[in-house]
Every structure is written in C-alpha cells, then in structure tokens.
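Support request from a user on the community tier.

User writes: "When I paste my structure tokens into the form, the page sometimes reloads and wipes my input. The last time it worked, I copied everything first. Here is what I submitted, just in case something in the input itself triggers the reload:"
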C-alpha cells in the first residue's frame, strides 16, 4: 500500500497542476494565444494536451520511483519544478506576458536539469523518466522565446499607430436593388448587410489588442488561423466579391481578354470551366479567377473561407457559392445562379486587381 501511494500521490499532484494550469489558460487560449505570431515549427494545438498528459505521468512515476525506495531527499526539488511549471501558466497565459513566461520556463529548465543530475546518481530510472520532460522543455523554451521576440515588433507597430483603423464595411458602388432580377434587394440586404458585416465585426473584435491589429486584411489572412482566419478571410472574400460585380454589364478589357484566351483557349472555354467548377463545388466555398507569380491565369475552387493568397496566388474575381449568396433568389438551383452571375462580373475591377495589367 505504501508503494501504491508513493506513486499515486505524485502522479495525482502532477495532473492537478496540469489541470489548474489548463484552467488558467482557458480564456487566453481563445482570446489571445491564437493571434500571436508563432514559430513555423509550433505543433498543432492538439499535440500539447497529449504531450503534457504523457509527461505528467512520467513526472509522477519518477517521483514515485524515489519515494517507493524511501528516498525523500529530492522531494523539494521535484515540488519546485512543479511549482515553476504552474507559475509558467500564470505568467504566460494569465498575465499574457511572453517575457515573464520565458523567464519562468528558463528557471524550470534549470530545476529539471538539476533534478536529473541529482537523481542520476541515486536512482537512474528516476532520472531517465525526466529526460523526455527535459527535451520537451527545451523545445517549449524555443517556442516561448520565438513568441517573445517576434511579437515585440508587432506590439511596437501597434503602439506607434495612434489610432489603429478598424476594418469597416465598404460602401457598395451600386444600390441594393441595382442587381435585380439577378440578385434581389433582399439578398443584398442579408448577404452584404448581415453576413458580410458580421465577418467584419468579428474580425475587429478578434484583433483588438493583438499584433494583428497593425496588419492589413490580406496580411491577417496570410498569417492567421482558426476563428480569426475564418472571419478575416471571409471579410476579404466578400470584399472582392461585392466590389467585383456591377449592374452594368461590361466587356472584358482587351489585355485581360488576350490572357484568358491564351490560358483557357477561348472565352467560351473559360466561361464553361468557371461555371462547371462553381456548380460542381461540393458544399460551401468560393471559385476564383486567380493569377500566379508569372501572370498565368487559373480557376481555383476553395472550401469554406479559403482564399487564393494562401496558395501563393493573386485573386482577380470570385463567385460566392455559400447558400446565403443565392438561396433567397434561386433556392437550391445553384447552377442557375452561377450562369446569371457571369452577367454581373465587373471585368474592369478584375483587371485592376491584376499585377500584370
């Protein structure tokens, strides 16, 4: 029974610290951490709870290995590293200070290394059980340091901006009923006035007080992920969409016309490919006319909020095939909506977005 408690109590304490740390991290993980500039080697979010669950078990077994033999000499050092582990959560997440977090994790590195050295001469098994923990901490120190260094610049940029402009709903270059009968006023009121506005409002709320506040919408889309990416990308996608349509049907400018014919064979071939792609895209998403770094044009379907700039392409025009874009007017007849949309494209705006015009 004594041996059981020798292992059980340290394991329980390690997981208790992990649980308290996770609780403290709660709001910051949603409101702050996702918007930091992080290392390209940062693992996916799901890796962290898995890694720490394994490490806490090893930490507890290591202490149990000492206590089961009646050796309590290392107990203070073991408790110290556990307190520093908890303190890091407080400093980094609760206080949202990468600098204090870095100082704390460096102190934790020293404590864990001291524990390994001390136990190696007394119970080698206890020392080896701490080695994965030491390796993980070295990596975590790098991640913390990267965040501290790379978010310093962003904070300075925000501080230098006297009044960081918030993104606003762009004014439509046409009236809400100007696109009828292809798009009704009701569709514009809901799609532009509610859906698009919600994405803009959410983006403004999510970037407030973060390094992203100093970035352009395109830069946010390039560098963000998760909920911020979804809202920022949808804001940019809708901006391109609504600015790229017009009630006055326009011919394709000759410079763009020649490029389309060169890359698609003919205007008819382009129209057919674009319509087929937009009609056939499963689920919600977008279809784009985009250009690569050499000016070559292509039709790119993207799912959900995805945007061509995430694929190193420059978007020229797009169609929104989320149901909210057409359901009020066309119900489930997406193909009819796509065909009618082709009459609304503002080709002058598409050419203006090109880097090769």
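"...and here is what came back when it finally went through:"
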């Amino acid at each position: 029974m004594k041996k059981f408690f020798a292992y059980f109590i340290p394991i329980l304490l390690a997981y208790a610290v992990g649980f308290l740390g996770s609780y403290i991290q709660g709001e910051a993980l949603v409101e702050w951490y996702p918007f930091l500039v992080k290392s390209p080697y940062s693992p996916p979010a799901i890796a962290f709870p898995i890694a720490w669950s394994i490490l806490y078990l090893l930490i507890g077994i290591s202490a149990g290995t000492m206590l089961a033999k009646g050796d309590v000499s290392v107990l203070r050092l073991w408790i110290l590293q556990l307190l520093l582990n908890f303190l890091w959560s407080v400093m980094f997440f609760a206080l949202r200070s990468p600098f204090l977090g870095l100082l704390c994790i460096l102190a934790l590195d020293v404590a864990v290394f001291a524990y390994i050295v001390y136990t190696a001469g007394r119970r080698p098994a206890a020392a080896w059980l701490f080695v994965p923990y030491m390796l993980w901490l070295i990596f975590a120190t790098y991640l913390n340091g990267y965040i501290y260094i790379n978010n310093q610049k962003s904070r300075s940029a925000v501080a230098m901006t006297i009044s960081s402009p918030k993104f606003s709903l762009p004014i439509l270059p046409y009236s809400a009923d100007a696109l009828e009968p292809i798009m009704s006023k009701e569709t514009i009121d809901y799609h532009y006035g509610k859906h698009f506005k919600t994405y803009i409002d959410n983006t403004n709320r999510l970037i407030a007080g973060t390094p992203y506040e100093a970035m352009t919408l395109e830069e946010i889309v390039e560098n963000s992920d998760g909920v911020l990416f979804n809202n920022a990308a949808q804001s940019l996608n809708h901006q391109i969409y609504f600015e790229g349509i017009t009630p006055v049907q326009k011919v394709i400018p000759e410079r763009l016309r020649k490029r389309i014919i060169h890359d698609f064979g003919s205007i008819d071939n382009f129209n057919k490919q674009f319509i087929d792609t937009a009609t056939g895209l499963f689920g919600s998403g977008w279809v784009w006319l985009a250009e690569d770094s050499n000016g070559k044009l292509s039709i790119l379907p993207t799912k959900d909020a995805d945007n061509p700039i995430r694929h190193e392409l420059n978007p020229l025009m797009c169609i929104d095939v989320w149901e909210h874009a057409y359901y009020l007017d066309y119900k489930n007849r997406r193909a009819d909506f796509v065909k009618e949309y082709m009459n609304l494209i503002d080709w002058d705006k598409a050419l203006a977005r090109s880097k090769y015009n």
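Agent notes: The reload is a front-end session timeout and is unrelated to the input. Confidence is low (pLDDT under 50) at residues 153-165. The first strand starts at residue 285 and ends at 291. Escalated to web team.
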